Predict the 3D structure of the following.
Amino acid sequence: MSSSDDPALERELFGPSRAFAWGFRFSIAGSLALIVLALHHWGAREVRSNAGNILFLAALGAGWLLLTKALFPWLGLDPHDDVVERRNPAALFALCGAVLSVALTFAGGNLGEGSSFWNNVFSAALGTCGLFALWLLLEAGAQVSSSIAEERDLASGFRLCGFLVAVGLILGRATAGDWHSMSATFHDFLRDGWPAALLCGIALFIERFTRPRPQRPFPSWVSYGFLPALLYLALAFVWLWHLGSWEGMPL
């Protein structure tokens, strides 16, 4: 009997679960491509001129994405359970944003001249830890994962996606630049990355008015999700424009 003769097998191969799984995998592949492009165009001179170094850092980036993906369930969202098994579009958008935000912090930490790859690892770890700290703060204050995983609120998924990508942009930029020392990197991270904490405060305030409630169990995904996400991203891009190019940025 062919697979087309077995409806259950056909649903397994081509049904929504598989589409959701591929959607999440595509976000990982796209995020990895972003890392490779960033390294190729704006990495250290030694990296840009050597394909082997780009491949090494890209492989490190792939491991970085897979390692941090394992931390998502600790923040209330599980790629397998919420995306693949429960086919939750809100979780899909939120977790795709989470993957992209991690890629942004990793890429940012690898931009600029340095004496060793360990400089890159320290900078990327600083940005990624900052990202997870702010995500944890938002989760503790607003229980966003509950709105996404349990109530399947698409607007909440959009908001979290926009918030995480905006924070990834800010913290990735805060760790970009030539390496001088650990203390200088940390100083630059605080100096250029503090708006991410302000953005978290704004997100906590917005969550008080936009999350689902008995009087409004199904908020509009446009008004309560897409527009707040656009606001987060707009604020992040304004800050990046204010900062301008990082030290050592290739022209």
Summary: Residues 3-243 form one domain. Confidence is low (pLDDT under 50) at residues 1-7, 9-14. The first helix runs from residue 7 to 14. The chain has one domain: 3-243.
